[in-house]
């Protein structure tokens, strides 16, 4: 399907039926699956209404409680490395600009590889949710499936205020077109099991969001680590722009002197500002990005303790120590991560998407919990850009300006090496 064909289609929200603006179901299979769950009627249940008599299609939660979970209110900004709390459901999601009309292009629950996925579609929709068919006045019987146990969402690092934890295992991230394009393409790529399932664009309070799977949903009190992969954290095009139209940044100067007051040059000190690319390069060499091709951005342990103070974690030994601490000397966890990372590497080496994109600033999100469950996913495609054909990357060749290489696979090789190194020390 071409991008142009995707206009006026609507996202599949966890496999619930999707309806086009003309009121026809876009995915008969999902609709049939959904209807087969609609058995026992319950009274006084929240109303989840799909309204499609006008375009764009709107989904509204018309009650404020779903099985004890508050769905009406929501904190607007989730602080980094803190639980979002629940009640994060948008009271009204305006579904538009849909990603992909075909159900095949939408997310399966298959991004969870390490363990049995008991979620499936459409079990995410809580008991008692009632659907109105577009254009009809009646309501479908409510679902008989029990609601999923609410898990607070936690953001480890990244931009504050960019995310909203939604219900039904969904996460909303502030919309950028570039990231949307990547997530859409990834849903069609062999990398699909290694990225959060993507469900299209929703609007909330006039802000667009990319809606994706919350990767923490299946874990209990998870430990989470965000590792930024690659030897370069800015795009080649950012370098070009910085040369053509330099825009010194005061905020980045301040972040720099906070870590090392000696870091700015005399000129930068006079200006009290630094270029973004200069700041990014400084961060790369201060940490392990340049020398190992990845760096730890943040870790949240199962006990809730969060550490984002890894800016100077550079040597192989220091990184190893931090990883060892993260896995709490648990060999089972290390083995789970290693298995997943090796699978990912194999898939990356043959992925069409990966070969044809410069992948910069993207992270691997590691998650495990006390049951021994582990998972690793690629996240953050805000600075992943398609290459001009016929250019392709091997992601291991060292970067030289113009070759667009990002060192992603070289970084992954090193990460796998270091994790393998710590295995004998685990119990
Ligand atoms: O981690 P610190 O040292 O705070 O620096 C941040 C990260 O590099 C961000 O990357 P990421 O999003 O991968 O975490 C980057 O966002 P971009 O990805 O937009 O480049 C920020 O740029 P600004 O958003 O321009 O401030 C930059 O200030
Ligand atoms: N799909 C997801 N599921 C669970 N947590 C996520 C997901 N995507 C991002 N996060 C959390 O948000 C943080 C920042 O994500 P990221 O996409 O890198 O944001 P930014 O573009 O602002 O840097 C991650 O470190 C992780 O804690």
Automatic annotation (TrEMBL):
Which keywords has UniProt assigned to this entry?
ATP-binding, Kinase, Nucleotide-binding, Transferase
GO biological process terms on file: inositol phosphate biosynthetic process; phosphatidylinositol phosphate biosynthetic process
Looking at the keywords, is Ribonucleoprotein present? no
Example GO CC term: the record gives:
nucleus
Annotated segments matching region Disordered = 103-148
InterPro entries named in the record: IPK, IPK_sf
Domain of life from the UniProt record: Eukaryota
* Record EC number: 2.7.-.-
* Family of this protein: Belongs to the inositol phosphokinase (IPK) family.
Q: What is this protein called?
A: Kinase
* Organism in which the protein naturally occurs: Oncorhynchus tshawytscha
